[in-house]
Design goal:
This protein has 720 residues and is of the alpha/beta class. The chain is built from 25 helices and 21 strands. It starts with a helix and ends with a helix.
């Protein structure tokens, strides 16, 4: 194809949609509501589902009890109201072999959307009632309206019909026609991927991929197209991560740390246990990075209770061996205080000075800490966001450790790192995720993983109870306290209305998993008072919520650790890092309203000592996703298996909705299906930048342009 035509079609990608045939100014405004402003946006507005006409069943062949798709004409539509506030829509669909009835409950608007003579597809489970085959609440699509405008009929009709997300003013037929016109106008656009890379990975041309997504001849062609376009998303994401990492390190001087110093040797000898093989491997990887003449960028990924903290502590001791200081930042004051209790004695045993800094630190104490820190006398500073304040100055910061890094913004993490000159960086998270997802969430970090708990750990047995069976959990708490143990009662969503819609609930779960305390503290107080007076009158009941002052939180946790509180009523503030080995029973209210990751984190607070623990998940007798989620927690303690289950059961947008700010949007990547593709994209991105660090070669020119466009979009989205 002549180069001028290829260039013309490439430039056409950025032309406004109004330049397309059939797109009036009114339709352009409607498309804008879908985020479509130019032809590229239209080509990247991918179908949400497909109807493969080669797999459609006739009504006569549709077997009772099977889920099938049929295509036919609407015969009659009836709206019935058998009783107040109850509506039933019945629609007969006819093909050359018979009749089937579609039935929808409490969806009266469907009666206005289906008209006699419409050609429709209908998918659902076939049942037999009143002498007719029926489908209850089937999925349906209008393929051809009975009163259609001939000019708006499908521009493309094949064996596979694509259905795109729509909005008011744009129907399915119009959307397919607009996309078809964009495909024609841009059919010879230059492919940004170098030809050699496409061939080596067996990827189709991008123009063929766009056509295969919107107008596939069959589903095999659609999958080849999706794979190519998903690869584009992945390699651009990895280039974005890797170049961002280089940009962050620009002008900094990497430090080669000592990894066999006397303090580290002494600390290892004094450990009262032996590190597991996985802990040893993670520590070896971290120390190798610290010793190398480059800045360490590593994520320590481990399941609940796998011993990440001791690995991080040993890394900090190695940095002190090198004459440097360390900063360890946690998302909550409770967790920061926990680290002080856990790591502090370990540091003191080898003569290392440390301090804890939070917003609750008294002014006089804070002044002394900052003075010792600036002089270099203080070697390790642990704390919360208080560490990133401008007047917190280090003499020689060599290692930054950030726990639960997804709870901090990119700017916050960068600000702490900039307090040192070329400081090594270690992030930690107790949210277990498969490596493929780690590449998507934390692609700028090398990854070390710890799967298994140390051999002396006693993971909690998990039991699902209906809300009416809470007496079982109460009895378990009484028995535990009788034996000298302690218990948690978690009220994560106290005060939240149960009638919230599913999408609102999804946002709520995401906020909780990001560390927000979304509970009603007054309701939590009421619950604590009720338990203390009516259920456990002879026990000491305490209260811990995220909205208490830092001083009150610290005092409550100290009392609980010291055994002065038998039963701690708490919100999700205890989710991460709280370590009270004597607490063996946990009861979680409203468990069906929580995400699987959060429930796994919460139950990780139990069974952390030598005594076996039990967790009771209370929920109404529910069905569907929430029930399956709770049953999955009953079946396994493996956080990585639960993470994979979570990925399988969620929508893709929900999975990637917890990404870091500034990470480009992914539309087609399937985290589980595309794990190998993600690894390949990472490898290819590294090799590309090794050969062409700034993507300045002519062969990479279009790829550089695509990357710049993507990074600008990501930056704009983060700014919003």
């Amino acid at each position: 194809m002549p180069q001028p035509i290829r260039l013309q079609h490439t430039q056409a990608l950025d032309e406004p949609v109004e330049s397309l045939r059939f797109v009036s100014s009114g339709r352009a405004l409607a498309l804008e509501r879908l985020g479509i402003g130019n032809k590229r946006d239209l080509l990247e507005h991918y179908p949400r589902r497909y109807l493969d006409l080669s797999t459609v069943s006739s009504i006569q062949a549709a077997k009772i009890g099977e889920t099938v798709t049929i295509v036919g004409r609407v015969g009659e539509v009836k709206l019935k109201k058998p009783k107040p506030r109850m509506t039933i829509v019945e629609c007969s669909v006819i093909d050359s072999t018979g009749v089937i009835i579609g039935v929808w409950f409490k969806q009266p608007w469907i009666a206005n959307r289906l008209k006699k003579g419409d050609r429709v597809s209908m998918s659902g489970k076939v049942e037999m009632n009143f002498g007719f085959k029926r489908m209850n609440s089937p999925f349906y699509e209008v393929l051809e309206a009975a009163d259609r405008d001939p000019d708006s009929d499908d521009a493309y009709q094949g064996r596979v019909i694509a259905f795109h997300p729509l909005c008011e003013g744009i129907n399915a037929a119009w959307m397919r026609r607009f996309v078809h016109e964009a495909l024609e106008d841009c059919r010879y656009a230059i492919d940004p991927l170098p030809a050699q890379l496409r061939v080596s990975r067996g990827l189709v041309d991008r123009n063929a991929a766009w056509r295969g997504m919107h107008e596939p001849a069959d589903m095999r062609e659609q999958e080849e197209a999706r794979r190519r376009l998903a690869y584009d998303e992945l390699i651009l994401l990895q280039l974005h991560f890797l170049l961002g990492r280089r940009q962050l390190e620009a002008g900094l001087e990497p430090q080669s740390q000592v990894i066999d110093g006397p303090l580290l040797s002494m600390a290892r000898e004094q450990l009262p246990f032996t590190l597991t093989d996985e802990q040893e491997k993670a520590l070896e990887q971290i120390l190798a990075d610290m010793a190398a003449p480059r800045i360490m960028e590593r994520l320590l990924l481990g399941d609940v209770g796998t011993g990440k903290t001791v690995v991080a502590a040993l890394a900090m001791i190695a940095a002190v061996d090198s004459g440097q200081q360390c900063a360890m930042m946690a998302p909550t004051a409770v967790l920061a205080g926990q680290y002080g209790n856990k790591i502090g004695p370990m540091l003191e045993s080898v003569g290392i000075e440390w301090a804890l800094l939070t917003s609750a630190t008294p002014a006089a104490t804070r002044d002394r800490i900052l003075e010792r820190l600036a002089s270099g006398q203080l070697k390790v500073l642990m704390g919360t966001h208080a560490l990133i304040q401008d007047d917190v100055l280090f003499s020689n910061l060599g290692l930054v450790v950030v726990d639960e890094q997804h709870r901090f913004g990119v700017d916050q993490r960068t600000k702490l790192r900039r307090k040192g000159k070329g400081s090594d960086y270690l992030a930690m998270t107790a949210t277990p995720i498969p490596r493929s997802l780690a590449l998507l969430l934390y692609g700028d970090l090398d990854c070390s993983t710890i799967h298994r708990r140390p051999g002396n750990s006693t993971p909690c047995k998990t039991v699902v109870l209906s809300s009416s069976e809470r007496a079982v959990a109460y009895d378990a708490i009484r028995e535990a306290v009788k034996q000298g143990r302690q218990a948690y009662i978690i009220c994560p969503l106290v005060g939240v209305k149960s009638e919230q819609e599913e999408d609102e609930q999804g946002l709520l779960e995401a906020r909780i998993e990001q560390g927000e305390d979304c509970s009603d503290p007054k309701a939590a107080q009421t619950e604590a008072r009720f338990l203390a007076s009516k259920v456990f009158p002879n026990m000491r009941v305490g209260l811990l919520t995220g909205r208490m002052s830092a001083a009150d939180k610290d005092a409550t946790m100290e009392q609980f650790r010291d055994g002065a509180i038998d039963v701690l009523v708490a919100t999700t503030v205890v989710e991460v890092g709280v370590d009270v080995p004597n607490a063996t029973v946990m009861m979680i209210e409203d468990a069906d309203r929580c995400g699987i990751s959060q429930l796994h984190q919460l139950r990780g607070r139990g069974g952390r000592g030598k005594y076996p623990g039990s967790v009771y998940l209370l929920a109404p007798s529910s069905q569907g996703k929430s029930k399956a989620r709770l049953e999955a927690l009953e079946r396994t303690q493996d956080g990585f298996k639960l993470a994979e289950y979570d990925l399988e059961s969620r929508k893709e947008g929900d999975i990637l909705g917890s990404r870091q700010h500034g990470v480009p949007q992914l539309k087609l990547v399937n985290v589980l299906k595309d794990s190998q593709l993600a690894m390949e994209a990472r490898q290819d991105a590294e090799e590309l930048l090794e050969r062409d660090p700034l993507l300045e070669s002519p062969i990479n020119g279009m790829l550089a342009i695509e990357l710049e466009r993507l990074r600008k979009r990501a930056s704009d989205a983060a700014g919003e």
